[in-house]
Amino acid sequence: MPMAGFRGAWQARIRGWLLAACLLVPGLACAEGTVLVLGDSLSAAHNIPAGQGWVSLLEQRLRRELRDPPAVVNASISGETSAGALARLPDLLRKHRPTVVVIALGGNDALRGLPPAQLRGNLERMATLSRQAGARVLLLGIDVPPNYGPAYRERLRRTYAEVAQAQGAALVPFMLEGVALEPGMMQADGLHPTAAAQPRVLDNVWPALRPLLAPATGRGGG
User: Fold this and answer.
1) Which member of 32, 68, 71, 93 lies 3.0 to 4.6 Å from 133 by CB, making a disulfide possible if both were Cys?
2) Is 151 exposed, middle or buried (0-12, 13-18, 19+ CB in 10 A)?
3) Which residues, at least 6 apart from 159, have a Cβ–Cβ distance to it below 8 Å?
4) Does the annotation mark 76 as catalytic?
5) 192 carries an active-site annotation
6) Three-class SS of residue 112?
7) Of residues 40, 41, 43, 109, which has the active-site annotation?
8) Those residues with Cβ within 8 angstroms of residue 158's Cβ, 6 or more apart along the chain or in another chain
9) Number of C-alpha atoms within 13 angstroms, CB side, residue 184?
10) Could you tell me if 101 and 88 are in contact, meaning their C-beta atoms sit under 8 angstroms apart?
């Protein structure tokens, strides 16, 4: 075997051993690949420094805790709807080839009074496209103010739970749990978390995201 071929085969074998060790030894912190975050202003660091948003804090945590941290691509846009994100997703999947896709959408759909059934269809399609591209999916749910009425709020909550179950996706039922009603945690508009609240948002996301990182290195889909 030529030396270059021998070296390539040996490196591939070492990578295989390392991956096996990462999957079998709980205390060994390993990961690689790309985490794609597809969201709206809640994930786009609205009205706060970009480096203080929860997605930037996630990237910092990955670098601290994992030997080979995945890249983080924040494709979130303020004002984004589920329909707009669905239109952008195919190009993002081709460009970044993510191993994990975090879908954090629905707030702007609700603010526009769009029916939860429409949101559900868009979320399901995004999850399907992500899984077909070999990524695991994490869905981050949202809630709306009480003036929307209990029936609408319940339908919205049920939408995320049903999509997650149907798609085999991980779920955070409410990404602003412990934030939305806490003093000093929300900006003056009552819709967006302050910089001080961003670590809490990440703490809500992290337990559901962390288990997806090591399995995603095999690009096994979901």
Assistant:
1) 93
2) exposed
3) 106, 116, 119, 120, 123
4) no
5) yes
6) coil
7) 41
8) 116
9) 2
10) no
